[in-house]
Design a protein that fits this description.
The chain has 146 residues and is mainly α. The protein contains 7 helices and no strands.
Length: 146
Amino acid sequence: MSEIKEKSALRAATPRAETKRFMKNSNSILEQAKQKIKSFEAKKLGQKAKVIAEPTANALIAFCEQSEEFARAVIDGDDFINCLITISKDFGNAVSDFEVYSKAVQFYFPGAVIKFEMKILMSEYELKPTPNKENLSLSLDSLLDW
């Protein structure tokens, strides 16, 4: 008896060669975006921009990994140094990471919004997932859609 393998809609609709080209292209886009973000010289930056440079670069790279569209915007957009200079010029003596990352994302993709989620764990045991415990999420829309 033959074995039936399930395929995703993308894999079922796309020939194998085209799927490989798509994946290679996505990796290429991500690598280009990473290179553009990482290729900055800190000595060209002011003190405030130097302080936020590395964490902001790491956050932008993580966002590029989440969204190919955002990675394309980084590739097509201005240099990372100009991003840092632009977002740091309005800072006072202190600034929130949230504000820095939001402004950096807006620099490359106006209209994009970052969703921040913070959760406190009171012990190391809360870090480990429990096998039978699932997060329950309800939406009023899902209850009314019948």
